[in-house]
Amino acid sequence: MQQAKEKSQDKSNNVIPFIPEGDFYFTKGVEAFQKRKFDIAIKWLRKAMEEKPEDPLYACQMSIIYTEIGAYHAANQLLTKVLQTTDYVDCYYLIANNYAHLGLLNDAKKYVNYYLEKEPDGDFHEEAHSLLELIDFDEDDDEWELEDEDEILIYQETVFHHMEYMEWEKALPLIEEMMTLFPEHKMAKHDYTHALFFSGQEDEAIQKELDILKEEPNALYSHTNLALFYYQLGKVKEYRTCVETLRNVYPIHAQQKLRIAVTMARTDNLQEAYERFHQLTKRLVKGHPSYFRWFSYTAYHVGETDKAIALWEEGCKRHPSLSKEKQPWLDQ
Known about the structure:
Tetratricopeptide repeat protein, TPR_rpt, TPR repeat, 3 domains, 20 helices, disordered N terminus, TPR-like_helical_dom_sf, Serine Threonine Protein Phosphatase 5, Tetratricopeptide repeat, mainly alpha
C-alpha cells in the first residue's frame, strides 16, 4: 500500500501544470471568430490581450471582431491605441474600413491612402484598392493633416458616445475644445448646437444654427437640428418648413440617412420615419444606439409591437448601456 502511494506521488509530481499564455487564448479566440461565435471570441481575445497587452496583433484581431458586430467606433478606438505605441500599418486599413462603414468617406479615403503609401503590396492591398473604388469622395471636403487625425479621432469617439446617450453636459466642453482645435470641422458645430439646446440654452442654439444655415443653405444637419428644436418649442410653422425640406432629401451616406430617420421619429412623423429606417442598411448603422432607440420607438407607434421589442432587445445586446434606459415607447 505504501509502495502504491509512493508511485502515485511520483506520478503526480511529473504532471506539468498547464498555464495558458496569450498565444493559446488568441488561437481560441480566432477559432471562435471563424465559427462566428463572437461573444466567445471577444472573451478569449480579452484574455490574450491581458497576457500580452503590447502585442498589436491581438488588438487588431479584436478590432476585426468589433467591426463584424457593427461596433465600428469601439474598433477604431482599439486601433488608435495601437498606433499610439507602434506603427502597425494594418491598422490604417482597418480604421479606413470602419470609417467607410460609418459613412465617413473623407476619413476613410485618407486612411486607406496612407496604408497604401506605407504598404503598397501589404496583406490588405487588394481590399484597400477595392475600398478606394467604393468611396464616393467629395473633393471639396475639408482636408485634414494626417498628424491631426489621431487627436480628432479621440475627440470624435468620446463626443459620439455622449451624444448617442444624450449626455449633453459631458459633450459640451469636449465639443468646445474640438471647435477651438479644429475650427473647420463642421460637424462639431452642429453637435454643439444640439447639445446646447438640450442643455437649456434654446435661443442661442437656434441662432447659431440659423447663422450656419445662412452661410450654407443646404447644410443638412442644420435642417435636422432646427426641425427638432422648433418641434420641441411648439413653433409649428417653422418646424413644418424644416420637415418639408427634409422630405425631399435622400442622402447617400448612411449617417445622414439615419439622422433624417431619427429626426422624423422625434418630430412625430412616425410613418415616414418607419419607412426611412427600413431604407437603411443595418450593418452601416448598427453601431449607433440611436438607431435601435428610435427605430424601435417608431415601430411600436406604427403598430409593429413585436418588431419594436425585437429591435430594442437587439440594441441592448449590442449596446449594454441601452439596457439602463426604459423601453423608448415608455419613456417618451
